[in-house]
Structures are given as structure tokens and as C-alpha cells.
Amino acid sequence: MSQEFATIALAGLGAVLVIAGLTFFLRPRWLLAWLKGMAVFGVMTVGAYLLVIAFNLYSYQSLAGMQTVATVSTQEQGAQRWGVTFEARNAQPVVATLRGDQWQVDAKIIRFTGPLRWLGIGPAYRLERLGGRYTSLEQERDLPRSVIGLSDTVWADIWELDRQFDLPFVEGVYGNATFMPMRDGAAFDVRLSGSGLVAVPVNEEARKAVQYW
User: Fold this and answer.
1) Collapsing DSSP states into helix, strand and coil, what is residue 26?
2) What predicted TM-score, i.e. pTM, was given to this entire model?
3) What is the pLDDT of residue 117?
4) Residue pLDDT, tens place only, 162-180
5) Residue 202 DSSP label
6) How many CA atoms lie within 13 A of 167 on its CB side?
7) Sign of CA dihedral 30, 34, 40, 41
């Protein structure tokens, strides 16, 4: 298609669309019905969006400032094999086995902006998984990883949707605690704020593990 022909075609299509649009003004009832329909559709869209947010908030927990959200304790079971007890706030303890030399907790954090923040909706979080890691690059590459899921899959997860589509008034943040060493009898607090996770040793074994790590 030549540039001249393409220009004529685009001009013709533009003229047709303008004329078609002007017909709405020749028959005001069509325009009024269309505007009403668009307004109703907009209201329903906003309502559905708010319902999805409300549904998600049931699977997340509120977050106010820096707070302890879980404790992690480790017991040696064998070479690079550890029994881990994970106790989250308002949840049953999770007891499982991790392989490796270090552990880490991952979480999803949602922050709200604009009108949602004005309504007083604060940040919320959901603990996602507890994983192990080897300090040796060769072992980390060749040996199987151990990961423990800490939450169920949520339909229409607003955190995932925001990462894909950049939703309005919602900010999905990925938080993880720095890898901590595993040591027999060590215990750590997992603390969380709106910016992420941090692990803090709470007994002597944990402090020694961090000190000589």
C-alpha cells in the first residue's frame, strides 16, 4: 500500500467515524442512553474492583508499623538436615524439615494509596513460604531445594494482579527476610514492616550462629 493511498484511507475512515459520532447529537436520546450505560458500567467496574480488594483482605493480615509476625526455631537432624518449627501469629505452628545451611521467609505485602488510604485501609501482608539454601554454590546448584508453603492459593490475588497490570490505588511489594544460618537450638523472630521482613536472633544459640556466620 502506497503512502498516498494509506493517507486517503485513513482520512476517509476518520471522516466516517466523526460523522458517525455526530449522529448521536442529532438524536439526543441515543447519546443519553449511551452515557447512562457507560456510567452504569463504570459504577459496576468500581464495585467489582472493591469486592476483589475486600475478598483479598480476608486472606491477608493487617500491618501496623514494625511487628513480630512469626518465630522460627531449628533443630539439627543430620548433615545439612534441619527440623524447623515455624509459628506465625494467629496460625497453627508448621513443623517441617529443611535441607541446607540457611533459611529464609518470603511474604507478600500490599500497600494502598489514594482514596483507599483515605478510608483508613492500612498495609496488609501474607506469609508465603519458608525455604532453605546451601552456602556452597555447587550444592545450591546441584542438590534439591526444600520449600514449605505457608499459605493457600487465593483466587484473583490482588498482589499478583498488581504486578501484572499495575492496578490503581494498590501497590504490591515483595518482602523477604535475609537468609539466616541454621543452628541446633537457635530461635529467631521474624519482624515485618511496610517495607519488608527482617529476622532477629532471640536466644544465645541464634546470636552465636549470626556472630560466627
Assistant:
1) helix
2) 0.74
3) 81
4) 888 898 988 988 888 778 9
5) -
6) 24
7) positive
Instruction: Using alpha carbons, list the distances in angstroms from residue 149 to 79, 172, 179.
Output: 23, 19, 17
101 and 135 in contact (C-beta within 8 Å)?
A: yes
Query: What's the residue count for the chain?
Result: 213
Burial 50-84 (b: 16+ CB within 10 A, else e): eebbeebeebbbebeeeeebbbbbbeeeeebebbb
Give the CA radius of gyration of the chain.
Answer: 27
Q: Which three cell numbers stand for residue 142?
A: 546441584
Question: What is residue 180's DSSP assignment?
Answer: E
For residue 4, pLDDT beyond 70:
no
Cα distance between residue 64 and residue 102, in whole Å: 28
- DSSP-assigned letters across all residues of 65-89: SSEEEEEEEEEEEETTEEEEEEEET
Closest of 113, 13, 122, 104 to residue 67, by C-alpha = 122
CA 56 → CA 92, 128, 170, distances in Å?
A: 21, 14, 12
Q: Which three cell numbers stand for residue 90?
A: 494467629
Distance CA 121, CA 119 (A): 6
